Amino acid sequence: xxxxxxxxxxxxxxxxxxxxxxxxxxxxxxxxxxxxxxxxxxxxxxxxxxxxxxxxxxxxxxxxxxxxxxxxxxxxxxxxxxxxxxxxxxxxxxxxxxxxxxxxxxxxxxxxxxxxxxxxxxxxxxxxxxxxxxxxxxxxxxxxxxxxxxxxxxxxxxxxxxxxxxxxxxxxxxxxxxxxxxxxxxxxxxxxxxxxxxxxxxxxxxxxxxxxxxxxxxxxxxxxxxxx
Length: 228
Prior knowledge:
Blueprint: H1 7-15, E1 25-27, E2 32-34, H2 37-50, E3 54-68, E4 74-87, E5 93-104, H3 109-125, H4 164-177, H5 181-190, H6 201-212
Antiparallel strand pairs: 1-2, 3-4, 4-5
Helix pairs in contact: 4-6
C-alpha cells in the first residue's frame, strides 16, 4: 500500500473508465441544456463501486434567506458550502469543497443546493467531459459603464461685490475707530460674510456705520486693504 493512500490511484483508475456525459436535459425557463444529477449518478455508480470509492458530505456553511418570485409567491433560498470527502477502502481520502445554491417554494431548497454541489464535485474531481461543453473563455460580457458625473459648472463671481477701494475704506474706518481685527470680523459675520472679499455693495454702507460706532480717532489714508 502506498504511503499516500489508495485513493490517489483509485480516482485515476475510475477516470479512465468514465465516458462523456451529454447535456440531454433542457431548462425550459432559461432555455439551456444541462446534465442532471441522476445522469451523473447513473454514469458513475457502477464505476465508483468497482473501484471502491464513495463520498461523504459535510455542510460547512449555510446561508438562508427568503425571496419573492415574479408571481409574488415566497421562495426559500439556500446557499451551502459543502466539503465532499472521497474515500476508499484503506481510509485515505481527498476533499473537494464546493458551493451549491437552491431555491424552492416549499422545503426542498437545501436538497436542491446539495444536489447541485454534489453534481459539480463529481464532475470536477473526475473531470467528466461533455460533447457540447462551452469553455468559459469562449464567452465575454461587456459591462455597462456607470454614468459619468456631470462636470461642475463654473460659477461667475457676483457682480455687486465692493471694490478694492471700498475695502481700503473699511480698513481706514477700522483704524479710526480703534477696533481690533476680531471686532471687525464679528461685525462682518453679523451680515453673513466670512471676509471682506465677500461683502456686497448692498450692505457696504451698513457695515461702515457699524464700524464707526464706538471709539473714534483720526482716519488714516485709505490705501491699505483689510487683512481678511
